[in-house]
Amino acid sequence: MHLMTDPATPATDPATPATDPATPATDPATPATDASAPRRDHYPHRVVVPTRWLDNDVYGHVNNVVYYAYFDAIINRYLITEGGLDIATGPIIGLVVESHCRFRRPLTFPEDIDAGLRIGKLGRTSVRYELALFSQGEPDAAAEGWVVHVFVDRQTRRPAPLPDPIRAALTRLVALAPPQP
Amino acid sequence: MHLMTDPATPATDPATPATDPATPATDPATPATDASAPRRDHYPHRVVVPTRWLDNDVYGHVNNVVYYAYFDAIINRYLITEGGLDIATGPIIGLVVESHCRFRRPLTFPEDIDAGLRIGKLGRTSVRYELALFSQGEPDAAAEGWVVHVFVDRQTRRPAPLPDPIRAALTRLVALAPPQP
Amino acid sequence: MHLMTDPATPATDPATPATDPATPATDPATPATDASAPRRDHYPHRVVVPTRWLDNDVYGHVNNVVYYAYFDAIINRYLITEGGLDIATGPIIGLVVESHCRFRRPLTFPEDIDAGLRIGKLGRTSVRYELALFSQGEPDAAAEGWVVHVFVDRQTRRPAPLPDPIRAALTRLVALAPPQP
Amino acid sequence: MHLMTDPATPATDPATPATDPATPATDPATPATDASAPRRDHYPHRVVVPTRWLDNDVYGHVNNVVYYAYFDAIINRYLITEGGLDIATGPIIGLVVESHCRFRRPLTFPEDIDAGLRIGKLGRTSVRYELALFSQGEPDAAAEGWVVHVFVDRQTRRPAPLPDPIRAALTRLVALAPPQP
């Protein structure tokens, strides 16, 4: 890892070979249609997320941290209402082991956000959720991210197979076709 | 993208080729020393971050979202105090265009967290910050993440070169050697 | 101020003469119908507030702090959409100078909350908002609170008269009858 | 409750007889020394609270909601470290039934805040905490607030006497003299 003179120089960090993290895929000042941005029909589960006053930060838009709070709310609400997850006393819980987000355009309180959720991978004890957030009326995602849950025993915190009702609920959201490259 | 029967099956998602996102690098139930976990001496800038009551979620540990709030606070405090960033009226501001975190072990209010910051890449208009969080007395990171800022003109939101004082401050944190693979 | 042997002993704190703050008006373990709890028809403006995962704290219910975030979101959304408040560049902004909440029953993610807003007092430069939060299907409020805004000039931060469109919007929500004692 | 033509007109709301909630006690634009503002020596327990980036809202200062998050963190940290409260599995927990804050001057990330805590009333099953927040170097409080906990059985959520170690810890912070009127 060394000082780069230009952000377009390829990264050598093994953690992120395919994306040059110092080279944003989208120019934040160019909100034109972006062929690589996800669209709503890539996501079988869609919900509306109202923003809150405190979501905006001092720069006047929803803070990057808050996008992950939206993701958490969308994922867990789906697990609870569709998969029967009991967050208070159930034997199996989902812990986040990795997450990522790419921010393409600003979102701003008081707008309502259209959100989409799909399942990128459904393992025996883990799940990769893929999400996107859209301003209403905009075809291209303002942000896209993913979150990996490992399901564990509540007491021992050791990995445990996904309960059947959760697996069934998540299977319905598995993306059938890969997103466009 | 298709239903995987086992999380160890390689991912095909072009966004994350090198890491299998549904195969967590660390077993969350096995907090033994992990050769791949970052250590404090990988990070030239180190600060202590007190946790808050509301950082913990219903599962009793700091929620994954809050790690990104720690990152934002650490980065911006450094930019302000060491680089002279004026978040209220300065002409150039830093916007997050991408972020990532890997969660290895839990952190829990009321502990104080040791945090480290280094610069992974320093471009003309963008910066990749790399951070790690440690429980006090633990050599291995509880979590590691990165955040990419693009610096933009406050009014036009078009990319703008890093101001010299910020570049100087960040240059001091550029990692000289690659982290261990 | 001195050590009380029983919370029913009247408070002498001049800041809160009418309510004995160490004597909660309602037993948190007795969620029976409470004649003093506000009802929906006390509040002319009503909205639904979805909860988020991180609203719950380690005790499994929405944290007390988050109620105030709901209040802020409800108030500001109303000021923006009904009163034309421009939070980004408008000349007049509303600053909170005092707030209060009484918590009667728990609220819990993932429930959707019914919220009500009325105006308790509408001054020349200040406004007292009164709010209540209800679990869906419950007649009695789970919580009631109030927030006082002083409107100020954005630059000087000196009190400024409420802009006419905001005054008109708020006048529509002024409570015509006092709430039951 | 009726439309007031002037905020100085006395309130008739039975919930707040002593303070006119639409008449802020302090002019937010006049940060001169205020005889009624609490001072540090009114509070026997004092801690430093670092601010975070996201504490600031779009108006450039710490959002009012966040003050209550500071209160929660200060109170619970004291209960845990000084009173032995076990928030994960202990039989008795403290629930907030009422809270209040008066905001006198702005606080702003990245400043570190001096905070003070005292006990206003210590009942058999409930406690009134009184807190103040100060900018470093400022004698007068930027904000003052109070929070009432009722201690309850974790399972039944019925009021329960304060455990002895917690009572002992809180007794040390009981204010011996009343604050100035």
Automatic annotation (TrEMBL), chains A, B, C, D:
<protein>
    <submittedName>
        <fullName>Putative 4-hydroxybenzoyl-CoA thioesterase</fullName>
    </submittedName>
</protein>
<dbReference type="GO" id="GO:0047617">
    <property type="term" value="F:fatty acyl-CoA hydrolase activity"/>
</dbReference>
<feature type="compositionally biased region" description="Low complexity">
    <location>
        <begin position="1"/>
        <end position="36"/>
    </location>
</feature>
<feature type="region of interest" description="Disordered">
    <location>
        <begin position="1"/>
        <end position="41"/>
    </location>
</feature>
<keyword id="KW-0378">Hydrolase</keyword>
<comment type="similarity">
    <text>Belongs to the 4-hydroxybenzoyl-CoA thioesterase family.</text>
</comment>
<dbReference type="InterPro" id="IPR050563">
    <property type="entry name" value="4-hydroxybenzoyl-CoA_TE"/>
</dbReference>
<dbReference type="Pfam" id="PF13279">
    <property type="entry name" value="4HBT_2"/>
</dbReference>
<dbReference type="InterPro" id="IPR029069">
    <property type="entry name" value="HotDog_dom_sf"/>
</dbReference>
